[in-house]
Amino acid sequence: MKQIEVTIMGQSYILGCPEGGETSLLEAVASVDREMSAIRDAGRVKARERIAVLAALNLAYALAERPVAPAAGSASAPAVPGSDDAHIDALIRRVDQALGADGQLL
């Protein structure tokens, strides 16, 4: 697994990335950065942690609202490639690693 340095809302993060997953990861980072920046720029929320939670909820809601397209030979498939539970768990672990103690509840 390689590491990629990204910037979200002006803060740098080093993220683990599987070989061949760079484009998808960078697209995800861009989405998170856009969402967090929009929330911050609206001026109602100042705390980075709250902005991150609101952005995560907005993006998760948008993902949940996507229609599920049937795959060949199956009744249904995830609307987003790799959006199964194992993939989501891996993303959560990456976010936890990137945030370190900053994102943990006391």
Automatic annotation (TrEMBL):
Signal peptide: none annotated. GO terms for cellular component: cell division site; cell septum; cytosol. It comes from the Bacteria. The keyword Calcium does not apply. One of its GO terms (biological process) is FtsZ-dependent cytokinesis. It is found in: Cytoplasm. Keywords: Cell cycle, Cell division, Cytoplasm, Septation. Its main location: cytoplasm. InterPro entries: Cell_div_ZapA-like, Cell_div_ZapA-like_sf, Cell_div_ZapA_N. Homodimer. Interacts with FtsZ. Activator of cell division through the inhibition of FtsZ GTPase activity, therefore promoting FtsZ assembly into bundles of protofilaments necessary for the formation of the division Z ring. It is recruited early at mid-cell but it is not essential for cell division. This is Cell division protein ZapA. It comes from Piscinibacter gummiphilus. The lineage of its organism: Bacteria, Pseudomonadati, Pseudomonadota, Betaproteobacteria, Burkholderiales.
